[in-house]
Structures are given as C-alpha cells and as structure tokens.
C-alpha cells in the first residue's frame, strides 16, 4: 500500500456516503481506473477485475487506502486480470465492455435488477424541455427523455437515463421508439440495402426528422438520437391474451 498518497477529508466524506448508499451485491467501476469492485457487505468489498498495468495497480492501492480510512477492507486475493489495451481504440472498446458488464448488476432500491424489468418492451418517453446554460453565457433548450420500467416486485416505475439504457440493452433496443401503436427501429446500412431492394418491404421504411416522420402529417416527439435515421415500422407487440388493433376491428365488424 502506498504511503505517499493520503485521501483528504472531502474525499473521505464522499466515499463514506457513496459506499453506504450502494446495495450489497452492487458492482462499482471507478471511471478511468481500470478497476471493478463488488460490495460484499457494509465492511468489505472484493476486487473483481483489474487491467494489467502499473497505473491500475496504483489506483487500486489508493482505493485500499481510502477504504481503510472509512473502515472498509478490500479482498484482492483472486481477481480477473485484463490485458492492457495497446491503443486508444482498444482502450475505448474495453471501457465500453466493462461498463456494459457493470450495467448488468444495476438494481432498484429493493434489490430487483433492472435486467429483470422486461426492458425488451420498454420504449423512450419524452419528459420535458429543459433550459441549459452554455459556456458562452447563452442558454439553449434540450429535450429530456427517459425509459420508464416497471419493477415487478414493488409495482413502481423507475426512470432509466437513455445512456444507461443503451449500456443495458445495446444498440437495437436503444435505436427505436413507439408512436401510436407502431414501433420505429433504425436499420443498419446492410439492412437498408436489403429492404430497399425488396419491393414487398420498401414501403415499410420511414425517414425520421427532428419533428416529422415520412408519410405522417402531424408533428411527432422523436428522441434526438433517432433524428436523421431510416427506420422500419412494425406493429407494437401485444401482450399475450390481448387483441391487436386489427383483431379488435375485425371482431367488431363480425
């Protein structure tokens, strides 16, 4: 353990509150540290993985010193050693992968994991417009969106930040949104070529702007990350036991 570095009071106070708020079993990856830890109980954590570099080892020693000062011990006898990235691209890909692995452990306050909240059927929802201050002193308006998931064990909805949802579910579930019983999903370049060449499916492609969807006359709230995409359009999945709109209409006619 390094004797040169000592945490200051501000860092100690922050760490004490931060670690106390985390659920037992929760996983933490300090930004840019190359480290991943798991909370075993209120007094002990375990090092899960570490990038094989002198910098990550130094970060770990600092973390041990910080936790020691607030009465927490770190178990680091066995952990997964990750190869040191050789360039910025490898470092970026490793960081994304580690964050995605971390996201799988995220849980609500009762311990229910977000991945157990039927996220496959959750779509982005517009929340509000918000004014933010720019560096030049001027203000601009941005749209706030969230993915609202139902916790099956509490019956309460939680709001998931779009970036966090992207980490949890990946590109395909992130690059879509629902409107009037339809789901618009962004297609890749390869998918676009295939669909455009297929006369039976080319009419199902829609270009999305910031407020309009091709062939839809009224203005639509569209998530900013979907602006400028080409999407395929499909009916929103219907829960088992429920009728789709087409089925309901046919039953009424009969």
Characterize the structure shown:
- The chain has 254 residues and is of the alpha+beta class.
- It has 3 domains: 9-105, no CATH class; 108-166, no CATH class; 175-254, no CATH class.
- It is 30% helix and 26% strand.
- The strands form 3 sheets. Strands 1, 2, 3, 4 and 5 form a 5-stranded mixed sheet that branches.
- Strand 3, helix 2 (54-69) and strand 4 form a beta-alpha-beta unit.
- The chain is elongated and about 65 Å long.
- Mean pLDDT is 85; it is low at 241-252.
Give the tags.
five-stranded mixed beta sheet, four-stranded antiparallel beta sheet, single chain, 6 helices, disordered C terminus, 254 residues, 3 domains
Count of individual helical segments: 6
What is the overall silhouette?
Answer: elongated
Terminal Cα separation, in Å?
78 Å
- The run of helices and strands is HEEEHEEHEEEHEEHEEH
Brief digest:
The protein is built from six helices and twelve strands.
Write the layout of secondary structure elements.
Blueprint: H1 9-21, E1 27-28, E2 35-41, E3 44-51, H2 54-69, E4 73-75, E5 80-82, H3 88-103, E6 124-133, E7 139-150, E8 157-160, H4 162-174, E9 176-179, E10 182-186, H5 189-197, E11 205-207, E12 230-235, H6 245-253
Parallel strand pairs: 3-4, 3-5
Antiparallel strand pairs: 1-2, 2-3, 6-7, 7-8, 9-10, 10-12, 11-12
